[in-house]
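Hey, I'm writing a tutorial for new members on how sequence and structure tokens pair up, and I'd like a real worked example in the thread rather than a made-up one. If someone can provide the structure for the chain below, I'll link this post from the tutorial.
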Amino acid sequence: MQNRWDHATAASFADDLAQCVYASRLLGSDPALVLHGGGNTSVKIEQPDIFGQPQTLLYVKGSGSDLATVEAKDFAPVRLEYLRRLTTLETLSDQQWLNELRGSVVDASAPPVSVEAMLHALLPAKYVFHTHADAVLAITNTPGGTERIREIYGDAVIVVPYVRPGFPVAKRCASIFAAELTPQTRGVVLLRHGLFSFGETAQEAYEQMIALVQQAEAYLAGCPVADTPVQMPDPAAPLRHDLAALRQAISQAAGAPMILATHNDEACLRFAQRPDLATISQQGPATPDHVIRTKRVPMLGRDVAAYRAEYERYFAENKDRANFELTMLDPAPRVVLDPSLGMVAAGRTAQEARIAAEIYRHTMEIIAQATALDSYQSETTAEVFDFEYWELEQAKLKRLGRPPLFAGEIALVTGAASGIGKACVESLMARGAAVVGLDINPAIESLFDRPDYLGIRCDVTSEEQMIAALEQIARTFGGLDMLILNAGIFPPSRRVDAMPLAEWQRTMRINLDSNLILMREAHALLKLAPRRGRVVIIGSKNVPAPGPGAAAYSASKAALNQLARVAALEWGQDGIRINSLHPNAVFDTGIWTEEVLQARAKNYGLTVEQYKTNNVMRIEVTSRDVAELAAEMCGPLFAKTTAAQVPVDGGNERVI
């Protein structure tokens, strides 16, 4: 843990709130302190009300914003004295408490108030920072956690037993702070939850946080985690079929398609291969709020049915703790620990799977360190259940709208660096899919910077590279649901009597043979797709209506069309549907070079502009037009359609 306060940079953050923003970003950029929206910060600012009367506002980080990238607009200004007065009440229901929090905000455009705002209000210092430091959790999450914290810090910190968030923890802290808070107090440790630091300047509060965590790290250094041996799997051993089968089972338990991200690095494998894994991993999360992302415990091995039954038992045994009717959450695991797979994280989106993985990666470190210190101990099952089924969390579920059409599904698009392929990637992502783009162009790798996109540079004519790409897809997202076969070339215009064999064969390799390889290798993954596999072939108008000078292109696309029809016959029993689109004159694609465009127009005795709208509707067809229909053909509107051939050409007289 390093003190990264930079005086020159801090000086550019002029006012009190800006100073809080700077310190927040320093804290948020260290995953050993906070993860994914965790932690919160605040500053108390004197600011007159609309009548010019003096008042103190607590600017507290809004719920859901990320400390690492927080801005001034992400802080909610609330009436300080009003929050403090609320803690004098004996009881408040969750809904009453939430209403009062919202009512204390003085800016209607502000983000939702942090659920821990009242704790910030109770501490008198100007700046208050809260993190979930791994080092502190590794100490509090042991049987003697309270005694160890007191041994480390003495009277410099106040220790608060775990209490469920909301009004209960604020009420408890108000009582403890009133009795124990002194001018010498440097921080507050909430057992199995986190650490508070504070100061009259942002720098003081930040450096106090760093110093407190450093003390915890120094204590843990006396009990290092043993560097146990790990059995690394053969990196060449295929996992894609196993992962797709696991994803299918988890998706069935979840009631919806899920993304699976596999992490088989040395750290994950070492933890998953621990001989005491069945004990240490089943105690519970590092803090109860992690249950929302990771479930209470991970699944060990691959028996999804057993995990589901255990979760249903857990719900049945605890549901009567609530004073309102509960809706059971899906019983699918969010984290899987397997000695040969390492850690597999699941989520309804790629981002959810990424968050679950990062949280549990830190949980593994906390568990290992706590075990080296003594033994790992989470909060009670009842307390974790109460957070998982907190009234406010249940209310969120009722407010959730329908997920995007392809949420949790994975699509693969070939020839995705430009034109129709790139447009297909965009259309599929817009519908919620995680999308993989293949292309020989290295630009494919950086086409989009987002967790639901994977770009792989790949020569589609290489069987070895195609298989490696499918393996990478399965390890990144878990399997495959949709396949858009778009990669292709349009060679220079040549008459049949002048056709070089090498050019003919190259066209066939790219436009036909590569698609056979990919369809053959993808079949087993598509067969395991939770909602059944879908394939869309980007064909051509030249299939039903070839043109002069395009023998190699027309023949390759016609052969691909026949391949698709045969596959539709064979794969129908697996629930896989295959349909073809036949675009014509889509000029914003890579195959339409100026040379090709002029040559084709000349063949028809047209100018380039006339050629672009040479259809019965006199309209130009774009890549997005084709992509949108390709995406829809993977959706429910075409659920009972296979082997269809649909023109996307504005109406071509020869086709009609």
